[in-house]
Amino acid sequence: MQLTVWTYEGPPHVGAMRVATAMREVHYVLHAPQGDTYADLLFTMIERRDRRPPVTYTTFQARDLGSDTAELFKTAAAEAVERFQPQALMVGASCTAELIQDDPGGLAKALGLSLPVVPLELPSYSKKENWGAAETFYQMVRTLAGPNAPAPGVTRPERPADARPSCNLLGPTALGFRHRDDVLEVTKLLQSIGVEVQVVAPLNATPADLARLGDADFNVVLYPEIAQTAAGWLKRTFRQPHTTVVPIGIGATRDFLAEVAELAGVDPGPALAGAPSRLPWWSRSIDSTYLTGKRVFVFGDGCHVVAAARIAREELGFEVVGLGTYSREMAREVRTAAEGYGLEALITDDYLEVEEQIEALQPELVLGTQMERHIAKRLGVGCAVISAPVHVQDFPARYAPQMGWEGANVIFDTWVHPLMMGLEEHLLGMFREDFEFNDEAGGSHLGHGSKRSGPEAPVESREAAPGPETAIPQTSTAEAMASQTTTPETTTPVAPFWTAEAESELGKIPFFVRGKARRNTERFANQRSISAITVETLYDAKAHFGK
Amino acid sequence: MSQVATTLPTPSKAGACSAPEVLRERGQREVFCGLTGIIWLHRKIQDAFFLIVGSRTCAHLMQSAAGVMIFAEPRFGTAIIEERDLAGMADANDELDKVVSRLLARRPDIKLLFLVGSCPSEVIKLDLSRAAQRLSKQFMPDVRVLNYSGSGIETTFTQGEDMCLAALVPELPAETSDAEPSLMLVGALADVVEDQFLRSFKALGLDRISVLPPRRSTDLPAVGPNTRFLLCQPFLGETARLLEERGAQRLAAPFPLGVEGTTAWLKAAADAWQVSEQRFREVTAPAQQRARIATARYRDQLAGQRIFFFPDSQLEIPIARFLARELDMQLIEVGTPYLHRQHMSEELALLPEGVQLSEGQHVDRQIDRCRAAQPDLTVCGLGLANPLEQEGLTTKWSIELVFTPIQGFEQAGDLAELFARPLVRRTKLEV
Ligand code: SF4
Ligand code: SF4
Question: Distance between alpha carbon A236 and the CA centroid of its chain, in Å?
Fold first, then answer.
């Protein structure tokens, strides 16, 4: 048993729902108790979808157990097919139904339905959401494209000389982090080098679309967490090669175009020429000098953190001080990337461990998920969200891809926004005593609402890290009931004594570096067995550690 | 202070004759499970922790439903059952003990721990009541360990609170038969509302009043044959039954929603304590008047509007009664996940003639009926609201009715406003 409060990923059947909801003309009959219908709100509230997910739940109850849960499943499946008339039916079980072993696949088969039925076996007690999505997508592709597979040993016919090279985009789902916009951006990118997109899947694809996946020359794996398994099968079965680079960031976009050009047999030169993104110049402009060496901590799903770390170091001049992922399936890739930065990757799905590491590393910017956003907020560190699990705010009304040239522009803006800007940072540093500068104030561009609270400021109420938040109204009983509850939870490590003078000198250092200064000074004092920290100690430590 | 009647006034017979038609449905239910009650209970009982023994789905439900409402470290968590627990590689009970020990070591402020059963724990027949006894023995007197079921195969949404309070009833200290009569308010309310009610009863001259659940688990109220109780919430069937088993007597009343409901609810206790009509009027009139003014502000917007309720919290019937009688709305269908005929009898008697009630759910058929009726306002869960809005219906999220202080005189206007807002919004938008 594992004790958890917040989780990065839902159960695997939620991954299956992300595939089903992304697609058109499919229906998913899920053997599950009534409470599991909460999953609908992920799509209708967080993503603001205007249609119900195409999912029918059997909602069996205790009194049905042992008697007719199987019958209930058959009725639900038959009714769903009749009502929704899908082109393909997905069937499966949630964690509870898995235990009662009704075999949805077998039951659906027994109905003798005249449409393809895809049975999904998603072990709820060992696997999670992304794995569930990947497995579901693979099973769908296999069932629907499988009948069109060439006989083993038959080589793929050459593309006719006059035909344009074509590919499929694999991996975007419902409830994905900016999937909607990434698809558009990458489609444009591919068009710019003369490659045509045949099928995007699962997002907006029909079963008929999946059936013709084999027609394209190659596949673009947009999100390996979701598309890798299916792409692997397509490669084996249709001898369709696929891309390996995820085009997030300038460098990765260039590599991606080179890879695609190679697969498509075209020249990437024209697409790379010109100034497709503003990021390179924005980064080189002298205003960005202040970004140099900012310490960033990166955590999220596998493909986004690998990309983010590269952008942070190579394209913004940050220093990556921590890198990790909750995607165990991508652990190898993330470990390798981390080694490149001289780090050991943090592979965990326990947000408390992540919080601990952020606290210890004292970064100046956190690039993470909504969980890290909450952790960072509590610690008074700036944060930009780079990965799922998603929140209603991760579905902006505007066009905001992460991939391609425009994605790089979006990333520059989003990541730099939470940081204190150059001159402002200096002025705050120089004139600490100005009565209008105070620690509660964030960057002035962040508005009056932005407050800093962290270990340096008294922590009034601790904000834990919720996951995908639903936009439930603010006036809540929970809140009203919580009004008396404050949970002060500042954990002060054993520290040498600070003299009043030194403490007040420390107060003159801007809050966004004060935590680091305090820790460094204490470390310095500890190493030298200094028990009382004076102003001298503070400056000795500063000289010792550098900025 | 006034003397208490030795026998309770006979409950009104109204309603017994004109029982409305109830459409009973069975099919897909689009309602949360009882675990969701933890979202407000863990804030209400400030020294309690709720440990769900369940799956990743249960943890994900809590996270998705609680989301934005967590401003402090939550006092709930999930012990996620893993493959090794199922395969017998690990003894689930040992594992649970380990989790509990670790948890209690980290949170020394916890005095009451609930082990909350889920569908998976029930299907694998993990005996949480035995576990609770075992752990109680180990951790008493510092921590009391209780258990209840919030599973989706046993409970819908607000029934989770019923199960939680029912688990507390056997723990209540006993009061002897010669104790002074006392009043117990049963059901979690927002603190602000609870305080208002306590002030009202004090003003009426009742001075032995307690609340269940208490804000601290160490303040469990005593119960005995001289305990009268008022249900603050309409979903507490099991809790009421167990309180009655311990000799307490339920004061039958409508629920304290709207001017009429609140008046009748307070009056039920006032009558049991033989508070004079005049005193009752003196105490309640100013607040009643304020509430009338506050609700009247929305009557123009709401009168004549046709409303449809999907089932959610069991609050549907009392709220529909309020909207029909105090704001002149027209009820098309009032769905409830479960209809407790006895506790609801005062409410049913107040509903307009011929209203369509439905119990249980077949969500697709209910949507068909809703589409056909084209109501002006549809009250439904978060999974349905945006899709129905897209079809052109105006919706009100039912969950907001559970997470907002709506009971009592001072909140009657707020309750009306919740229904007016979506309609106002429609008229404001020109996009
Ligand atoms: S319905 Fe059952 S399995 Fe689903 S969240 Fe509720 S208790 Fe957990
Ligand atoms: S706060 Fe204002 S002045 Fe400072 S960097 Fe932002 S925009 Fe410029």
Answer: 29
Q: Please, which residues bridge with residue A383 across strands?
A: A366
What residues pair up with A243 in beta bridges, in sequence order? none
Structure tokens at A100: 């009662």
Say if CB A212 and CB A144 are below 8 A apart.
no
> Before A86, cis peptide (omega within 30)?
no
Share of chain A above pLDDT 90, in %: 68
In 3D space, the residue among A511, A499, A507 whose CA is nearest the CA of residue A537 turns out to be: A499
User: Which residues, including other chains, have CB under 8 Å from residue A283's CB and lie 6 or more apart?
Assistant: A291, A315, A316, A317, A412
Cβ–Cβ contact B380 with A under 8 A = no
Contact partners, residue A220, CB within 8 Å, separation at least 6: A167, A168, A169, A170, A186, A190, A242, A243, A260
Q: What distance in angstroms lies between residue B401's CA and the mean position of ligand 1's atoms?
A: 22
Q: Which residue has the tokens 């030795």?
A: B6
- Separation of CA A284 and ligand 2 centre (Å): 19
B366 Cβ contact partners less than 8 Å away, ≥ 6 residues apart: B25, B310, B333, B335, B358
Q: Are A39 and A57 in contact (CB under 8 A)?
A: no
Residue found under tokens 């863990």: B42
| CB B110 within 8 Å of CB B37 | no
Across A410-431, b (16+ Cβ under 10 Å) vs e yields bbbeebbebbbbeeebeebeee
> CA triplet B69, B72, B73: central angle to 5 degrees?
110
Ligand nearest to the CA of A416: 2
Instruction: Compute the nearest-CA separation of B39 from chain A (Å).
Output: 7
The single residue listed with the structure tokens 């059936």 is A211
What pLDDT is stored for residue A433 in this prediction? 64
Of A298, A159, A144, A155, the C-alpha closest to A217 is: A159
DSSP codes, A147-213: GGPPPTTPPPPPPPTTSPPEEEEE---TT-SSHHHHHHHHHHHHHHTT-EEEEEESTT--HHHHHTG
What was the ipTM of the complex prediction?
Answer: 0.92
> What is the helix (H) or strand (E) element at residue A55, kind and residue range?
strand A55-57
CA pair distance A76, B160, nearest whole angstrom: 26
Residue B84 Cα, gap to closest chain A Cα (Å): 8
Q: How far apart are CA B35 and CA A341, in angstroms?
A: 44
Contact B77 A124 (CB under 8 A): no
pTM of the model as a whole: 0.89
pLDDT-derived band of residue A443, with 50, 70 and 90 as boundaries?
A: low
Identity at B105, one-letter amino acid code = A
CB B186 within 8 A of CB B239: yes
**Is some CB atom of chain A closer than 8 A to the CB atom of B390?**
yes
> What would the DSSP string read from start to end of A479-544?
HHHHTT-------PPP-PEEPHHHHHHHTTS-HHHHHHHHHHHHHHHHHTT--EE-HHHHHHHHHH
| Terminal alpha carbon distance of chain A | 45
Side-chain half-sphere CA neighbours of A321 within 13 A: 16
Which of the four pLDDT bands, split at 50, 70 and 90, describes residue A445? low
Question: Which of these, A99, A211, A69, lies nearest to A147 by C-alpha position?
Answer: A211
Strand order in the sheet with B48-54: A2-4, B76-80, B48-54, B112-117, B144-149
Count of other CB atoms within 10 angstroms of residue B371: 14
A5 and B46: CB-CB below 8 Å? no
For B376, the 3-state DSSP assignment is: coil
Question: And the tokens for A199?
Answer: 């099928």
Identify the residues whose C-beta falls under 6 Å from ligand 1.
Answer: A 33, 35-36, 95-96; B 33, 35, 54-55, 57-58, 61, 118-120, 151-152
- The pLDDT of residue A20 is 98
DSSP states of B121-189? HHHTT--HHHHHHHHHHHHTTT-EEEEEE--TTT-BTTHHHHHHHHHHGGGSPB--TTSPPEEEEES--
* Distance separating alpha carbons of residues A133 and A138, to the nearest angstrom: 8
Active site (annotated) includes residue A287: yes
